[in-house]
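Morning F.,

Quick status update on the modeling queue. The single chain you submitted on Monday has been processed. Sequence for confirmation:
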Amino acid sequence: GTPQKYDPTFKGPIYDRGCTDIICCVLLVIAIVGYVVVGVVAWTHGDPRKVIYPTDSRGQFCGQQGTPNEYVFHGHRSPAPRHRRRDRNLGVSPVSSCPIQICVSKCPDRYLTYLSASSGHTPSDLEYYRQFCVPEFKDLQKAPLKVLKDKECPAMLIPSTPLARRCFPAIQAKKGVIMVGNETTYDDGHGRRRNVTELLEGAKKANVVLEARQLAMKIFEDYTVSWYWIIIGLVIAMVASFIFIVLLRFLAGIMVWVMIVMVILVLGYGIFHCYMEYAKLKGEAGSDMSLKDLGFQTDLRVYLHLRQTWLAFMIILCIVEVVIILLLIFLRKRILIAIALIKEASRAVSHVMMSLLFPLCTFFLLCLCIAYWASTAVFLSTSNEAIYKVFNETACQFSGQTCKPETFNTSNVTKLCPDAQCLFAFYGGETAYHKYLIVLQFFNVFMFFWLANFVIALGQVTLAGAFASYYWAFKKPDDMPAFPLFSAFGRALRYHTGSLAFGSLILAIVQVIRVTLEYLDHRLKAADNKFAKFLLSCLKCCFWCLEKFIKFLNRNAYIMIAVYGTNFCTSARNAFFLLMRNIIRVAVLDKVTDFLFFLGKLLIVGSVGILAFFFFTQRIKLVQDTAPPLNYYWVPILTVIVGSYLIAHGFFSVYGMCVDTLFLCFLEDLERNDGSAEKPYFMSPNLKKLLKKTNKGQPDA
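Structure tokens below.
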């Protein structure tokens, strides 16, 4: 590209600018209106209860629609006849041929068959059994075989436990023996004894969920007793981040070197601690077991009793330590230049202090996007209607056809097929809305990416405009506008909504393609087509690289938009060619600065994480009795670590955008001006001194 030429009228971000990329702005408005319409339609047709509450065989919610029963019990009966299986092949949902589903007030707690309950040995058994039959079942004198044939009651009851409002067999293992209700066999209701292991496969996933539920409950208990300490930890991280940034304004050079040394020391202590734990476990029973032999355990504290765990931690920390030291050795001369940029960014942020709080606005808007997308997705996925099919025990020409329970008893079906029933089959729909639900879901995902990227772009162009006002002020800060952040925000919304929509649209398209590729990869995992898997992996890699490049290009294009007010394509082209003309500076200065910011995050997160570790494990004697008792001490520790990283990332993202903006403006300054009286440099005296540049005839103060 052609270097920028001197423009005597250019004095920083242009205020007299016009609207850019109007077509994209109109498209965004139309898309948002359509998105709102989709949300309203989804909220009208959807019913989130389908996700939360189970249904009986008639499609009615348990615990809803006037019924007090809360749980659904899957009543067992004999295998379906041959013609029933044939109906399933004709398209009847597998749910239809599963055991009958009945809403009950509690799950059964004993083994019992309907034949034994109706035999009259214990009158209370039949009354107990009755609560697990359909509500219409009243005739206790009805022949048992007739009751089972009409599917009014299940053939047998099995001791069950409630999980997610459903009754699952209460399977347990005692000394390696699988048991249900302290029994190893059960009566299937037809006079045959069966082994309880036949129930194991059907309830295996339920037991995994049950264990996960118990784990979740313990984690929830830990949060209830430690939430205020977690908040204190996050406040400490926020204060540490703010103090770190404030100190960078005055002691950037010292702070950077201290930060580097502290990170090395923190990692060194981590290595020392892992070695001490590794040595302490030597000779203890069970400590030499490998992670592979131990397998997955819900109690993660078990892994801390293995020497192999601490050895793995120590090796990882050693590798990280060596890599950081090598990078510092080879980049030591460039660190001085990065320090100069950080100092200049510190001065810029000190004059635009509101910029440190601006990420909260971006975070709030992103939360709105996520909430609207998630709620719309739930309502769309629950928009299907209950579909009922005809089922019968004997051959019938209407078997498998759609029916309506309200009019089924008066239809010709019951006359031609007396034993036919109209039962709930699945959730679906045959209207145009239901046929295009997948398209609406795709549109929902696409709009989420578009709006989320637009919010991020709005934050970037606002910060860029504010910091560019600082750089292009010849007398800093006297020539800066009164409210640079609000001025930049207003210019972005008033003039450049279309350009931001254009850049975020391109990025959203690439991200939707990546999501589609991930979905295809998930579906092809069971396939043996190696060529398809290879091709899919190549496409995923290519689009990952494309997304990274577009994010980099968009970021710099937004800086040019904030400064010059040009459209997206022109700004992207000018930014790209400007960076290519200074590729060495880009590769060294910009990336070294990013690396230093990463070390800053690592120091804050590591320090707060170590403090949380010693506190929650009760290793600080002064506050040993203050720490709450926990099931898993890693729960609050991980929460504090993740929260600290997000807080530090929010603070440093402002700094990162400031450095990128100043760097791009600095390159423009070098091309536009030469330091003469007619074309003076706008850079600060420190940068001019570092680069050995001067403004002729003007003292540098």
